[in-house]
Each structure stands twice: as C-alpha cells, then as structure tokens.
Amino acid sequence: MTSQPYNPETDGARMSFDGAMSYGDYLKIDDILSLQSPLSPAHDEMLFIIQHQTSELWMKLAIHELSAARAALEAGEMPAMFKMLARVSRIFEQLNSAWDVLRTMTPADYTRFRKTLGNSSGFQSYQYRMIEFVLGNRNANMLRPHAHVPEVHDWLSAELARPSFYDDVVALLFRGVHGTLDAMPAPKLDAPHEAHPAIQAAWTTVYSDVDRYWTLYELGEKLVDLEDYFRRWRFNHVTTVERVIGFKRGTGGTSGVQYLRRMLGVELFPELWNVRGEL
After folding, report:
1. Residue 174: helix, strand or coil by DSSP?
2. Backbone phi, psi, residue 136, to 5°
3. 138 with 193: CB under 8 angstroms?
4. Helices 197-208 and 214-245 meet at what angle, rounded to 10?
5. Closest residue by Cα to residue 105 from 147, 142, 52
6. For burial by CB atoms within 10 Å, which of 20, 144, 147, 231 has the most?
7. CB-CB contact of 160 with 193 (8 Å)
8. How does pLDDT run across 118-134, given as a tens digit for each residue?
9. Assigned architecture for domain 40-277
10. Is 125 within 8 Å of 59 (Cβ atoms)?
11. CA distances from 42 to 37, 112, 122, 241 (A)
12. Which residues of the chain have pLDDT under 70?
C-alpha cells in the first residue's frame, strides 16, 4: 500500500487539455447546463425542467432511430432495422423510468411554480407529435398548436404527406405474403390508422406459419415490443399527472387526466394485437 493519492497520469490518462478536445468540449456540457432557467424560487422547478428537457433529448434520438429504421426498411436491410426498433423500445423504457423521478414531486411542490408555466404544456411537444405521426397515429388537427413556428409546422406536415412507417411495414407484409400490393388498403396519410381486415389476415398468415415467414414474424414482434413500451409511457404519464394535479385542467387547456386516459385507448398497430386472439 502507499499513502500517495492515485495519479491517473501514470496509467496514461491525459490530464492537460490546452488546445485539445475534452469531454466537455465534445458534448458542449457548458451549453447544456446553461439551459435550465427556473422562473420561480420553487425548489422543484429545476426537477420539472430537467425532466422535460431530457425527455426531449431521448425523443430526438427516437426520431433519429425511426428515420434510420425507415431507410433500412426501404433498402431491405432488415437486421439493421430490427436493431434500431429495439433501440427505440429501450429509449421508451428510459423515458418510463423518468416518471419515477418526477413522481417524487408532490402536489404542494408543483403548486409553488405551476403558474410560471403559463399555457406551456407537454401537449405541445412537436417531437412527441412526430413520433406519433411516424408510427401511424396521425391527426391533422394536431398541426395547429405548431402553426406559430413555420419550420416545425412544415416538418410535421411533410410527415403527414407521406405514408407512415407502419404503412411501409404493411407494404412489405403484403409483398411477402401475397407477392403483390393489389389487396393492400390505401394508407390514411392524415388520419389515425385503423384496423383493417386485409392487414390482419396477412399478419394471421405470418403468425400461423412463423418458420416460413420468420423475418416478417420477427418484425411484427419488434413492433409489438415498441408499442408495449410506448403504452407504458402513456400509462405512467396519466398516473403521474393524476398523482400531482388530480383532475385539474392541463396548463395547455386540455382536460388533463381525462384527455390522457382517452389516449390510452389508441393502438398504433391494432392488427398485431388483434391477431393474438385468432391463433
């Protein structure tokens, strides 16, 4: 043993960063840590801000992965797409865990700074809206909260003008099962996807002969896994809001818990859930 403190430099660690890129430089840590600006003296406002800022960062990564998964699907690179979809599921697992931290904030804590939020609300998160649009839960009415930011409105509108990722998956499904797109229902570009008998029948074919359609079967399960975590995120959101504000209206004007409960009934890939009852 030695009484001398450990010096990482003796093992080759660089200790001086004059003129060299450091961890903080690469990640722009100073910029990130300067973006938390509470508007009240309330202790828990910092928690509230960081919770939502980090959630937006995870959603940015989810969009990045979904965009790459869509490109991989178009290129026929199935293993790469599966990896990206699995990563999106883990991202939502991470987002789910964040609610546990926010739930340490009591109603009394939140009341101390809620008025400083004005009409701002997670309902207005354009990244969350993009995730829903990409996955197939589309509603043109949801563009309106973003009309005041033209570049965001245009970004979301462009997504509504093209088939969703699930529409692309369904096209792959019909090519794999039927060898043609003739029987495939037309995608709804600006409306939520609804269960369709022809799509469900195609998934039933896949799930009834997994050895023959293994790749499509694996894709179906990746989507179910993703929606499973997405549903948990929504449920945890409802529970957290009810725990903190009860049945008050949301800061953005929604009915709060009642609105969030309505969203629990939305299914992204309904045929993949319905098919389980047919097997």
Report:
1. helix
2. 120, -10
3. yes
4. 120
5. 52
6. 231
7. no
8. 888 877 899 999 999 99
9. Up-down Bundle (1.20)
10. yes
11. 12, 6, 20, 19
12. 1-2, 247-256, 259
